[in-house]
Structure prediction request, 778 residues.
Amino acid sequence: MAADPKMRFLVVDDFSTMRRIVRNLLKELGFTNVDEAEDGAIALQKLQGGGFEFVVTDWNMPNMDGLTLLQTIRATPTLKHLPVLMITAEAKKENIIAAAQAGASGYIVKPFTAGTLSEKLNKIFEKMGQA
Amino acid sequence: MSDFAGMEDLLQDFLQEAYDLLSDVDNKLVDLERMPDDRGLLNDIFRGFHTVKGGAGFLNASELVTLCHLTENLFDRLRNGELELTPELMDVIMAATKGVRDMFGELGQMVMPQPADPTVIAALQGALSGQMPGAAPPPASASAPPAEPVPAKAAASAPPGSGGEPDWQALHATLTGQPAGAAVTQGELITKAEAAPAPAPAPAGAVAPVAGDPPGTPSPFGRRATDRPGGQPTSARRAEERGGRESTIRVDTSRLDQVLNLSGEIGLTKNRLTSLRADILAGKNDSETLHALDQAVSQLDLLVSDLQNSVMKTRMQPIGRLFQKYPRIARDLARQLGKDVELVLAGEETEVDKTMIEDLADPLIHLIRNAVDHGVEMPLERQAAGKPAKSLVRLEARQEGDHIVLIIADDGKGISAERIRAKAVEKGLISEEEANTLDERQSLNLILLPGFSTKSEISDVSGRGVGMDVVQTNIQKLNGSIEIRSEPGKGSVIMISLPLTLAILPVLLVLLGDQPFALPLSLVREILPIERERVQEVGGKETLVVRGEVLPVISLARLLGWPLARYPEYGVFMQTAERSFILAVDSFAGRDDAVIKSLEDFRPKGVAGVTTLSNGQIVLILDMKELLADLGQHPDMAASLRALAAA
Prediction:
């Protein structure tokens, strides 16, 4: 499935520099329709407002962490279809397993380049195309 | 060439945010000493290092990544109860935090951080492997390096394709670039970017992109793998060249929106005026047109002052950003001195001009050190005096009218006016007679004199006799003042009063012939006529007695090196920190709120800047201190005035 450049992303991270990095990387890949949220709780609010097609979230955040956000998304009928890419500095196997079990569409470890991000996104798009 | 070519913006953002995070971590560390088992605190601190590490990775700052990584792991163990927080461990953590701050400093100079102090790294690694003296040995399972392959049961716990979720083995394939079903091993799961809890510092390649990245992929931020720290001899020089000032500022978007909104309104009003001008030029000057003109101009007036206010507000920052550094400083110092001190902050939300915040940093540190070092007593001494062993130092900010007041108060032994006077006499700063005429308040102010220090032995912490006078000078540079109060046995209070902003300076406009000059109004006490017969000559100098006080009369013309065209009619009674005097001028043009424009790289002596009057005339704002410092000739001043007159 060719990605729609107008696809609306939500980038979730408590560190604004990181949100900017991800936003820049997405822009480099041609995705400019990006909104941001500071933690899982705010992200959930925004997502419930509708209109988002892709979630890129950090794991470790105050209030609601990325894993809880992911679990909540998967447990919400209106949101469960959303692809969720987890971004984190943790590359421990328990974390990857936990993310996979919670239904993450992909997992990417910081730091990464636009190339890596593109690769992960494409794999997710492919999967979505098959589904 | 910078180590961060092409990513300066990112670096700035990172540093600004990371400094805030680190200050927060510092404060939480201070709290942690009191509540070593608080999981919330441990979690927050863990997350602080974790976040910094994540950002540092994108900046390629591998040494910072390594240091944060080790510290983060330590907090992971602490929060999981696998390690116990001992005072020794706390010292290691404090040292690591300082290391991180030092690296921020290097990044601020656009230099790739050098490796952290090897003893700190070794101590962190030692603590992680349970070799910290006094640290509880971690359970064997936790200390074992996680080098074994993933146990099969991990895979089994997530059966492929369960419940319609993407099967995780396929996911792993996506993640690791390995074909699905391949034996999942440690090496594949844990990407090269993160040698996770491995005790060795991450190698230089540790921040390379995750596995599967095609080699040579151009980096999104132009980072260059060839830019490795190494010991560039230029780093130190570069560090000196750049001032420590932040060149960026964080502004609430709603404030920027307001500025935008107002400039839009001003644009509309300008359009209205343009059309009115066209009407008037075409000969239309009926009362309706003139009324409309009057209205438009009044509206513009209002809008412009609103805009000025809004722009000023964008420069205002909560002083808490400055305050948050201090609890850690106070704690470190108290520990060093064997005292038990808690620094209490209040009014952190008070907003102060950004430049002022930067200029206040050093004086405040000094005052806090003074309070901890000289102000409060040792715990035993306090108990003997019937006070709680723990002393309180309070740092407070609040706005009072158009002033900001900063208060540093301690509950220590107070300052004895008697001792201060004796010391000042002993040091030859004042004479015995002078000492006898000083009241309590004046005596306390003696500690602001250059060369004053009451502590007999010099401590390396605060007292070297070059302290309070520097604080005083710095505060005066900000047009502020200091007041000291003390009650022996109960404690001392130092109050600093500052104007809200430095951008607008209330001035008094005086005339010399037809030439106006602006004097800072804060120095003006009163204006009085100079009656020639009352001027007395004392020792060849003209003086005037005002309410029993003998004041020198200094002619502004003479200060500027101008010929005295006629005898000045008015005197401005001025008071600077050093002296009181009467400045003789010809006449006055009123008072004004001057918007100071600096003269860029052209700065004649005695001129603080220029401002423009409503009629478009340019006026020099005089720096009285500089003018008085040298009562001789001011050729460059005279030249600049000639240049001005010719313009």
